[in-house]
Prior knowledge:
The protein is an all-alpha fold. The chain has helices spanning 5-23, 50-80, 83-110, 115-137. Helices cover 72% and strands 0% of the residues.
Amino acid sequence: MKVSPILAGALLWSAATLVSLGQSTNKLTTAPGSQKLGKEATGPTTNSTPQQISEANKKARAKFATLTRKLNELKAKAQKETGDARADLERTIAALQKELDSLKPTLDNLQTATTNTWSDIKSAFDQGVKDVEKDLKDLP
């Protein structure tokens, strides 16, 4: 399984954002005001409160944990396979594990992101999650 070009681009963009994070001295503070987090919302904006950002970060961690659990289930399934089917599944698992591992630093950076960079990092994380979910759905 190949790493999708979208994920590769998101990771590069995320890395650039993380470099700018290291140069930023802003703390996690926001202007008064908030955004409702409905089902269609992608997450807080720079006008979000620290509480809203914290809640969105919890949801991101939960999503990451769910993907990790699904990958572990796939690993258990691979153990039951034999021959070429097992080898193919193990290659797929290795590629998915690599994608998931590449999301971990982005998830960690959500916790320390400034309000100016949080939504950009969150967008990169969300795109990576969508790519992993798509790859999981494409499996037999």
